[in-house]
Design brief:
Elements lengths: L1 H8 L25 E7 L3 H16 L4 E8 L5 H12 L4 E6 L5 H14 L6 E5 L3 E3 L3 H11 L3 E9 L5 E2 L1 E3 L4 H9 L2 H6 L6 E3 L5 E2 L7 E5 H5 L13 H11 L3 E12 L19 H15 L1 H25 L9 H8 L8
Parallel strand pairs: 1-2, 1-4, 2-3, 6-12
Antiparallel strand pairs: 4-11, 5-12, 6-7, 6-11, 8-9, 10-12
Helix pairs in contact: 2-3, 6-11, 10-11
């Protein structure tokens, strides 16, 4: 990674490339490492205003950041709400970019990234935040300090809190056939046996490398973007950050989980897929399409078919186990039938 470290090493005597855990804590007064924040909004105007307010508080603590809000053709008055708040609060460091179409989360991020790179900005990274997030005190400084000290880190994700403040200390492994089986089984003995293949990883109190991190709060170093890496707009929603982190790794960049930076995330406010009432709603088609695209694109059709079979078998076992226990339904309606209909077993889509 020496070719990428040169510019950072001139400013940081602690250039630490490498790939192990990190024990040093980064001070709240981080070195100058400006961030451009990109928020993609779809019908969550008041939540975006709350997110911007939390960023304004970070600026008040000395963080060097600006914000770009992309409105993905909400058509519900969200853009007007956000624009009015920016003018009312005097947030001259924030701007609203309207998108003429809703091309999905990745497309919205790409639009925001394009504006971030085109602006006369000295930002060293673009911080992608969901509209339903609130930045906790000091998170911007911790994230900037980590990226400044670790030039091999192309992507850095933060720790998350759930809406009620409960910690959600997780990052991820790339999805695999065995990972799909473990996820679908939801059976403790199998989870222990397949723990090394589980997609979800519980992280510790120190920064550590991961395969991918949640796109709800994910910073991407400017050099990664200047190399031309963008989100695959073939994903409408979900799996786009997984694919992005995988593409970054192929280019030699590392992805890190940074627990010292904390962001509150009220999940599922735009989609309902991961919200508190997710079990009452059918999973939308775009989730199945995104999952299928990820496996086919990165592993091929045969592997994607094996991943489908693993999930179907695991979920069927789970349903049988639940029936024997007479446990109440906890899954979205018609999950198995919808999965089958969108799988390669039935649809045969290329």
């Amino acid at each position: 990674m020496a070719r990428r470290c040169g510019r950072e090493r001139r400013r940081c005597a602690r250039c630490a490339g490498g790939g192990g855990g990190v024990s040093d804590q980064h001070p709240a007064t981080a070195p100058h490492f400006p961030l451009d924040v990109v928020i993609v909004n779809y019908r969550t105007g008041p939540l975006v205003v709350g997110c911007l307010a939390s960023l304004a508080a970070e600026r008040g603590r000395g963080a060097s950041l600006r914000a770009i809000v992309v409105d993905n053709a909400s058509q519900d008055g969200s853009a007007a709400i956000i624009e009015a708040a920016i003018l009312r609060e005097g947030w001259d460091w924030a701007r609203l970019i309207p998108s003429p179409v809703n091309g999905g989360f990745g497309a919205g991020c790409n639009l925001g990234i394009a504006h971030a790179l085109d602006r006369e900005s000295d930002a060293r990274a673009v911080w992608l935040l969901n509209p339903d997030t609130r930045v906790m005190p000091g998170a911007a400084a911790q994230l900037a300090g980590f990226l400044h000290a670790h030039p091999a880190a192309g992507i850095a994700g933060t720790a998350l809190l759930l809406g009620d403040g409960t910690p959600w200390p997780h990052a991820f492994r790339f999805p695999t056939v065995l990972g799909e089986l473990e996820r679908a089984l939801r059976w403790a003995p199998a989870s222990r046996l397949l723990s090394r293949h589980s997609t979800l990883r519980t992280m510790g109190a120190e920064a550590a490398r991961a395969d991918w991190v949640s796109g709800a709060s994910m910073a991407v170093r400017r050099e990664v973007l200047e190399q031309g890496l963008r989100f695959d707009e073939g994903y409408f929603l979900y799996y786009e950050e997984t694919d992005f982190c995988r593409a970054a790794r192929k280019r030699g960049w590392e992805t890190w989980y940074v627990p010292q930076a904390v962001v509150l995330h009220i999940a599922g406010q735009s989609t309902g897929v991961t919200g508190a009432d997710a079990a009452r709603r059918r999973v939308p088609r775009y989730w199945f399409d995104s999952r299928a695209r990820y496996f086919r694109k990165n592993h091929g059709r045969g592997y994607a078919l094996a991943a489908d079979l693993a999930w179907i078998c695991g979920h069927a076992f789970h349903l049988g186990k639940q029936a024997l226990r007479r446990a109440p339904r906890s899954d979205p309606p018609r999950l198995l039938s919808d999965f089958l209909r969108h799988s390669l077993l039935v649809s045969g889509r290329a």
